[in-house]
Amino acid sequence: MSEGRTEILGALRRALQRSAEDGGAEQAEARLAGHARNLVPARAALPRAGMLRLFEDQAKALSASVAHVAGAAQVPAAVAAFLKSENLPAELRLAPDPELGALPWQDQPLLQVSEGPARESDPVSVTGALAGIAETGTLMLRSGPEGPTTLNFLPENHIVVLPAARVLAAYEDGWDLIRERFGAGTMPRTVNFITGPSRTADIEQTIQLGAHGPRRLHIILIDGEIDRGTGDTTG
Fold this sequence. Notes:
There is one protein chain. The chain is α/β, with parallel strands linked by helices. It has 2 domains: 1-31, no CATH class; 47-222, NagB/RpiA/CoA transferase-like (Rossmann fold), CATH 3.40.50. The chain is built from 7 helices and 12 strands. The protein has helices at residues 2-15, 24-34, 48-61, 75-85, 98-101, 150-153, 171-182; strands at 65-69, 91-94, 112-115, 124-128, 131-133, 138-142, 157-163, 167-168, 191-194, 199-200, 208-209, 216-222. The strands form 3 sheets. Strands 1-12-7-4-2-3 form a 6-stranded parallel beta sheet, sandwiched between helices. The chain has a 4-stranded mixed beta sheet with strand order 8-5-6-9. It is elongated and about 70 Å long.
């Protein structure tokens, strides 16, 4: 294995006219440690209120739906209202996230709530999100015990609960947040970027929703909430 690796790397160095002693490894390490930001679209450089509007407009343009609640305690009612409006079963699979589990689901007695990774039979999942990215209306979700990745893709209907304080301008801000929360050199096993419901145009060049994941993506924005991770608030 090591001999093959050495041979391949040697061939690449010869093709690039480099040597093992030219400092390339040190340059690569310095570049990785520097976290240089890529080009950020000007449309993301907005005041807070404009950033939130951009996130919502971009998400809706890509077939996601968005609802607003004033506080986290109103989330269960908003979930129940969405299920009713879409004529969906009143049952959901909840991410084992303590913040979601602490919400007053008992106030919606018609909802059947279970918790854990997604099962094939689950019609609806409810998860949190690490961040929302305003430039494209994208959700940033990380894997872990509190957020099984199966919940993001297996059920046909995905509901994401997002404090408005976690809406960031650009993808680079999302990666900064990952590094801040998990520490240098530490990453979640999976980071998913989700923009609208799953879609494909492979079949006769016609857009089909739900081809590789959820048919519906519904975002519940909690306005004016304190984000425990950053201490930020939105008005």
